[in-house]
Design a protein that fits this description.
This protein is of the alpha+beta class and about 500 residues long. It has helices spanning about 30-40, 60-75, 80-90, 90-95, 105-110, 115-130, 160-185, 190-215, 280-290, 310-320, 330-335, 400-405, 410, 440-445, 450-455, 460-470, 485-505; strands spanning about 140-150, 155, 230, 240-245, 245-260, 265-270, 300-305, 320-325, 365, 370, 380-390, 390-395, 425-430. The protein is built from 17 helices and 13 strands.
């Protein structure tokens, strides 16, 4: 005989008496968040935004908005509409909001327009971490995390590229209009196709006007070297950058993390994929946030090869900071990575053309600075002092027209379909190793047994923070536009990370 079970009906409605105060249980993160916001944080920093002391509608308390935003971010909810929906449907959010139901625009304006207040809140939370003994102040690891932003990389390009794109769109519009004129003259007119093409014309004209307006209102964007870099019509502060998941349009969120309990002591977002030059503002941020100008003289700073540059190392030496910054060849010199290749999957090599010409097949005259290719064509001098991996070369390049029509093209280039002319490097000699330089001294320091031991701790300090932010808290992309707003969102997530540390370690002790 078959067993009997209680009747199941999840679709039925219930009228339940809910005590909102009982929804926030002691020992949970929401209890810690509720206590800290009400008792330890100074939220009067938001009061200057409100001018309704005598007239106007009462505003939502920033304490309640801050609670629901941080709680939503801790659950991986970053959209303003889902947060507003949670305040109507989730009893936990109802308790934190004390049965208020702010509109999603109120939540959005609070997040995007509170960067200066978030900076002060980040500092207040950091001071609580310091008071509860969560910051060791002995070692700091600095690293960056590239995240996509609320912008499309398809709208990126230099000003010249954007002008070409606008002209290409205009040509497409003229082509459709000419097609319509021909159809009208012949009496061939399909109403459904004509309607769709007219909508296409309207879309193309809007895109063209958008590009032209951007070019008029914005100057060329330049990088650290002074050369023009790609602009973006949607978010001109963002940058196109290479990540492990391909090319994205976004920002680099940089974090400085204390080694004791992985508390973020400074966080800042930059609209560049290149980390060169970003270590200096992070060091200044550490000193400002911890309110100690000499904090770095008594601690160690760790960073990967992305921050390695002569200017950065020179400043570290001038300020007497005990830093360990890896260079791009650090792992190749480490004997522990000598057999690292056996752990990588075997990738079949691309077939290369047999008998490809080597530099020895080119007739170079070092004194006259000339070079003749195997086909008997003269090459032009591209660089007379090319420094590559500690060696000095003469760089020659063939003329494009000679390469395009050469019968030896298959033997000379890596692929017959390769674009560009053949280049060849003629070795002049080995450069003397300059031992009296910051680059050499850092190399000697980080290659020592003690240096490798200290630098090996970097990965375990800073990478778990990015793992927590991206996978546990769900920060897979920035939802705002503009560097100031994105920087505020990045600091808000870093502050939330520190709040989880207070919940786990601080209040328990």
């Amino acid at each position: 005989m078959a067993p009997r079970f209680n009747h199941r009906n999840r679709g039925q409605g219930l009228f339940i008496s809910v005590n909102l105060d009982q929804q926030i249980q002691a020992g949970t993160f929401e209890h810690t968040l509720d206590f800290l916001v009400d008792n330890r944080l100074d939220l009067s920093i938001f009061h200057h935004k409100y001018c309704n002391a005598t007239t106007g509608r009462p505003a939502y308390d920033p304490a309640l908005l801050l609670k629901i935003v941080l709680m939503a971010y801790s659950r991986g909810i970053t959209g303003s509409r889902p947060i507003a929906a949670a305040c109507r449907e989730n009893t936990l959010f109802m308790a934190l909001a004390e049965d208020t139901r702010p509109h999603w625009t109120t939540i959005s304006d609070f997040i995007s327009g509170s960067r200066e207040e978030i900076i002060q809140l980040f500092h207040q939370v950091l001071m609580i971490c310091d008071q509860t003994g969560l910051i060791g102040k002995q070692m700091f690891a600095i690293d960056g995390c590239k995240l996509p932003s609320n912008a499309s990389k398809e709208w990126s390009g230099t000003h010249e590229n954007l002008r070409k794109k606008s002209k290409k769109i205009d040509r497409a519009v003229r082509y459709i209009l000419d097609k319509h004129r021909e159809e009208d003259q012949k009496g061939e007119n399909d109403h459904s196709i004509r309607q769709r093409e007219e909508q296409q014309i309207e879309t193309l004209l809007k895109a063209s006007d958008k590009i032209d307006r951007f070019l008029k209102e914005n100057a060329k964007r330049t990088g650290r070297s002074g050369k023009e870099v790609q602009s973006n019509i949607t978010d001109n502060d963002s940058a196109k950058m290479m990540t492990s998941h391909g090319v994205v349009q976004g920002y680099t969120g940089v974090a400085a993390v204390d080694a004791k309990h992985q508390v973020v002591v400074h966080a800042e977002a930059f609209g560049t994929g290149d980390e060169h030059g970003l270590l200096e503002p992070m060091l200044d941020g550490i000193k400002d946030n911890l309110e100690d100008e000499d904090i770095l003289q008594s601690s160690q700073v760790l960073a990967d090869s992305g921050f390695h540059s002569k200017e950065t190392l020179t400043r570290l030496e001038d300020e007497g900071i005990d830093a360990y910054i890896a260079d791009t060849r650090f792992r190749s010199r480490d004997p522990r990575f000598a057999t690292a290749g056996r752990h990588k999957p075997l990738v079949p090599l691309k077939p290369r053309t047999s008998g490809r010409f080597t530099p020895e097949d080119f007739r170079a005259d070092i004194e006259k600075r000339t070079c003749i290719c195997p086909a008997g064509k003269a090459m032009w001098l591209r660089c007379d002092k090319a420094k590559i991996t500690g060696r000095l070369f003469l760089q020659f390049q063939a003329h494009q027209a000679d390469c395009d029509s050469c019968h030896l093209r298959r033997q000379c280039l890596q692929s017959p379909k390769q674009k560009g002319a053949r280049q060849v490097n003629i070795l002049l000699g080995t450069l003397p190793k300059t031992k009296n330089s910051p680059l050499w001294r850092m190399k000697e320091k980080i290659d020592s047994t003690l240096g490798r031991h200290i630098y090996s701790q970097r990965l375990g300090i800073v990478e778990p923070v990015f793992g927590h932010l991206r996978h546990n808290l769900g920060l897979t992309r920035f939802s705002l536009r503009g560097r100031e707003k994105v920087d505020g969102q990045w600091k808000l997530m870093a502050m939330l990370h520190n709040l989880t540390k207070i919940h786990r370690y601080g209040l328990a002790t």
